[in-house]
Amino acid sequence: MTREHVLAPAMALGFAVVLAYGLIWAAEPAEPAPVADLPKSDYDDRILMLEEVAIEEAFKQQIIHIFSVWMKDDTGQPARAVTGARQAERAFIGSMEALERRRHR
């Protein structure tokens, strides 16, 4: 096998990786677009309550899912389950804190 036969595929792979990285980097916005607040309505309290219930239910369903996965595949467990549960907790806490901020504005 000649040197060109070895280098050509390696160079093509390197080019593809650089191109993919460039496309991903170019596609990501530098800053998230601002989201305008909705005007106040008579339903704001109800909406916040429904969102709180939905967040609680989503957290509960995620913990059920994590445990279900563990029961099917114990590879890397319980570390995988702990990682998933911690992420779910972070999302839950962040969501509930955001609701609380909206409640007090």
Structure description:
- The protein is mostly helical and 105 residues long.
- The protein has two domains: 1-30; 40-105.
- 75% of the residues lie in helices and 0% in strands.
- It contains three helices and no strands.
- The protein has helices at 3-27, 44-72, 79-103.
- Helix 2 (44-72) runs antiparallel to helix 3.
What's the layout of helices and strands?
Blueprint: H1 3-27, H2 44-72, H3 79-103
Give Rg in angstroms.
Answer: 23 Å
Q: What's the quaternary structure here?
A: single chain
Q: Write down the overall mean pLDDT.
A: 84
Shape: flat
Biggest sheet descriptor: none
Number of helical segments with 4 or more residues: 3
How much strand content do the residues show?
Answer: under 5%
**Uncertain stretches:** none
Structural class by secondary-structure content: mainly alpha
Short description:
The chain is mostly helical and 105 residues long. The chain has helices at 3-27, 44-72, 79-103. The mean pLDDT is 84.
Please describe the structure with a list of short key phrases separated by commas or semicolons.
105 residues; mainly alpha; 2 domains; 3 helices; 0% strand; flat
